[in-house]
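Sat 14:20. Reprocessing the chain from the morning session after the first attempt stalled halfway. Input below, unchanged.
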Amino acid sequence: MTDFFKKHTLIAGTLLLTATGFATRVLGFFYRIFLSRAIGAEGLGIYSMVHPIYGICFALCAGSIQTAISRFVAANVQRGKQIFHTGLLISLTLGLGLAGVIIRFSAPLSHYILMEDRCAPLLPFIAVSVPFSAVHACVNGYYYGIRKTNVPAISQIVEQTIRMAGVFLIADILTESGREITVELAVVGHLIGELAACLFSLLCFCLSAPRDKEEPAAHKGTQEDRPPLLASFFRTASPLMALALPLMGNRLVLNVLASAEAIWIPSSLSSYGLSSQEAFSIYGVLTGMAMPFIMFPSAITNSMAVLLLPTVAEAQAAGNDSRIAQTISMSLRYSLYMGILCIGVFTMFGPELGVSVFKDPSAGVFMQILAWLCPFLYLATTMGSILNGLGKTTTTFVQNVAALLLRLGFVLVGIPSMGIMAYLWGMLASELLLALLHLLSLKRLASFTWNTWDIIVKPALLLIISMGIYYALFSVWDGFDKLPLFVSTALHIGVLCLCYGGLLAVFHLARRD
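Finished this time. Tokens:
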């Protein structure tokens, strides 16, 4: 078994990141439940409004540099720590500068950009978290590049656990002192989590990162007029930033568009006829309650996506086209398997999940509609990462922009006349477009194959059969009906998943025989 995981680092790394991703998301659900009851749906909506600013900062100083470090380290493992140090210096400098700008201009940003003055006291907390996020992202990029996912995986648990512990402690102190719990609690929790993840990952790097191999003699002494550290920095920074800058520009444009979407949704809901409180409440239910459930299974695809990029980059550097094709086929198959299952889960159990977890029936209605998003959402995540790994960052950028512009059209034109339903349909249309564009691009780059019966028709039929088995079983006997609603719903979902997974396994083994 150990030899198997050593040979299949993508599978092993995905399993580890998936396990910790699920653990983190389970903890995150309890955290979201607490926040929804502590600050309400409107508070969740206001909290969601400040994340566009954080997303833009992360795109500029962390996300793109993390990806560049991961890919550059994967191709130059012997210089891994040198690459990390260079990326860290650039990322941290940018992060500190951005934090200062946000703190200085928090009031104008809230009034003119976010169009919500209540965000002004929240932005300084978000700003302070940016440099910590930059450090954490660089460490993660290094470990992804050397195919060691344990530190990034465990840091997720550390981040979520300490965030929850800190928020619960602060809330308890506020309650005992008779003070009101406000949205500031959520942004303080965000800051606590980022600080914890930063310190943990940096400590792990200092204690466990392997040393770089000695540089070949031919490269030594070529920059004698510069100090060694400065020479090392300039030698590494140029190719690193050559890779990071296009990603940075791409992510910046995407985050600006996503930020515009987040800002315009409450405004468009007001144009539909809702009050400010109603608009923020609906936005809070959608982003703070329904979407976390829809995104929960993406712990698997996100883990795959993180590791697919360096895996495909390495295969491309080695000229191993067959490995690239196999990776694409595997990712395509399992993304659709999981997405089709999630359609069944959320359409069947969305109402129960919304009521049992958040005490809000509208969250369940949103889940039922967004369930059809799952296959395309998960597929776009993995296919986009493979395209980036093949160096087609411009392609993914253009296609993501097209999908976002389509969704913005639904926000600006649809919501004022149809309400929030227009946005839900816009999300479905944009993810469908994005998944198809990614697939068509990959098809032109690699000679992978897919079998429509095997990856779409078969799992869909098996899901229908699983639902039939489920209804037949529980129409005769339901041993879970005396349990609390959430526990009962979770067990029912588990039965459906076991039926679906078991049928998939049977057909897979039958095909091999």
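Residues 91 and 268 are 36 Å apart (CA to CA).
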